[in-house]
Amino acid sequence: MTVLREDLADAPPPQTYPELRSALLARYDALPAQLKIVAQYLIDRPNDAALMTIASLSEATGVQPSAFIRFSKAVGFKGFSEIQTILRDNLSNRQVSYAERVTRSSQSASLAPLERFTQSAIDSLNTLVETTPPANIDAGVKLLRGARQIHVVGHRRSWPVASYFAYMMAGFGAATHLFSPTGPMAEADASIIGPGDVLVAVSFPRYSEETARIVEQTTGMKVPVIAITNSRVAPIARQAQIVFEADQDEAAGFRSLASAIVLAQIIAVSYGEAIASEATAKR
């Protein structure tokens, strides 16, 4: 912990949430295990953290209340209240939409399944619009357009997203390889990845060990990785060149795949449009 404070001695603490988020991502690997849990919660759920007490946050994360004080000092603050001030300032910029979301959440128990799951999907799609920089889409498309072959991997709950993305990319004429959803077969397939290729990896909690292993093998070969996941500190995200975050709103204990499927569609269609535009320009 002392090392972390000495490292930060000459750096002023973050003043805005984007600065705080960048600082947390940069220092994440150096944090002790319990403080990593706190950091991940602030990265993944800043709006919730802005409004919760330390006792509530302790219950939600499973770490002791004292860890939040240690965490604050480790990242350059005197106390956790200073971090929450930044989170609340960030929240005030979207207070109306978030307040509506909280209200809907409190009412969801009384809704019929059709309304409950539809609303969950709508919420996750709204978050996708708010948090996905268009420049990220452009960068992903550029990487895919330059690929010799595009490999796609996603296991268990991520499999529908991976298979749909691979299906669309193949439809646009991209040389596409979809890993088998079974672990041993997928690991054998990893040997076909080579220079000039790109790997698109999809993984959500509980994260697939098979997907993480393929990403690790791929990055060892210096092959670029595009990650579709729920967090910038997810296992596959920390080794990826480009990360797309898809929020997973929950209804009745089931996480929605709506934003992940739409995100896959957006990337694939953007790729197709870029290819078509290039072909038109050459005529």
Structure commentary:
This protein is α/β, with parallel strands linked by helices. The protein has two domains: 2-92, Arc Repressor Mutant, subunit A, CATH 1.10.10; 131-282, Glucose-6-phosphate isomerase like protein, domain 1 (Rossmann fold). It is 59% helix and 9% strand. It is built from 14 helices and seven strands. The strands form two sheets. A five-stranded parallel sheet has the order 2-1-3-4-5, sandwiched between helices. Helix 9 packs across helix 14 and helix 10 (134-145) crosses helix 14. The protein is globular and about 60 Å long. Mean pLDDT is 79; it is low at 1-9.
What's this model, at a glance?
The protein contains 14 helices and seven strands. The chain is α/β, with parallel strands linked by helices. The longest helix is centred in the last third of the chain and has 25 residues, at 258-282.
Main features:
five-stranded parallel beta sheet; 283 residues; Arc Repressor Mutant, subunit A; 59% helix; alpha/beta; globular; Rossmann fold; 14 helices; two-stranded antiparallel sheet
